[in-house]
Specification:
By secondary structure, the protein is α/β, with parallel strands linked by helices. It folds into two domains: about 120 residues, Rossmann fold; about 180 residues, NAD(P)-binding Rossmann-like Domain (Rossmann fold, 3-Layer(aba) Sandwich). It is built from twelve helices and twelve strands. Helix 1 runs parallel beside helix 12 and helix 5 packs across helix 7. About 40% of the residues are buried. The structure holds 2-keto-D-gluconic acid (8YV). 2-keto-D-gluconic acid binds next to loops.
Length: about 325
Amino acid sequence: MSDKPVVVVGRKLPEAVEGRLARDYRPKFNPEDRVREAAELIDLCTGADAIMPCHSEHLPAEVIAKLPESLKIIANYSVGVDHVDLAAAKDRGIVVTNTPDVLSDATAEIAILCMLGAARRASEGNRLVRAGQWKSWSPAFMVGTQVTGKRFGVIGMGRVGQVTAQRARGFDMEIHYTKRRRLDSAQEAGAIYHQTVEDLLPHCDVLSLHCPATPETLDLMNAERLALLPDGAILVNTARGAIVDQAALMAALRTGKLAAAGLDVYKDEPHIDPAFFEIENAFLLPHIGSATSETRDAMGFRALDNLDAFFAGGEPRDRVA
Ligand code: 8YV
């Protein structure tokens, strides 16, 4: 009988990642890539030492309470950890890790795509062409918002926020941000700091969200805060759907208070509110912020590095609980 730790693997992972899992652990893979509900997940964890979930596997307190005594670590294949009740894990002495840094570039690319897709009406244009409905051209045709030289605001100037701001500088945008603790001047790289979200919002021609979903940030962008943005602003969300009050966002898009929104994340994914489908000035992507082959591999290796460190008796680099 091998004494390699048993790892429940949440979803189908890249070949190289599954290869390393098979070499160093006794993995319980998910070849069909099904999203497992709580009862099945708990059942699978019987006798397991670790679980490597994605954000699609939900581990609230009631699930964590039913995990077996043998389970010692939740090594997330994600940077966001809002699908795990960290306090409940901590209470049970279960270590939790995530995969920061490795997905910052890929997510920043999607944030810029969302900004440009929203600003330049990419959904509308794409739909029109594909439907064979592009019949004429005129100077007034599909006029959008130019972002070059405008103000780019960031809520949550962490790893992804900083990389995204750097990419926005490529469009000569002036960077504004808010964060609980101000960055040092090297990290700020000329970005203008605002102490509160309310102070920041009037300065954002484009607002990009990069803060985690926590009870404090639930519906952070509500009707009152959306109203503080300049008329015709653009909202970009590649962080978590929970941060935005979707009804308020849709209202702001319908009235034209916001010129457009570029969204990669939603509440209750993948069952997004169908009201979005009718809103022309929303550029919508299906949570693909980190979906590149390089990044998927890197996320798996980072999660495995955390598992390796833990089972070698050390402290995993990315411990969050
Ligand atoms: C991932 C993400 O695709 O890592 C995160 O927090 O939101 C995504 O980019 C997903 O979470 C993988 O589990």
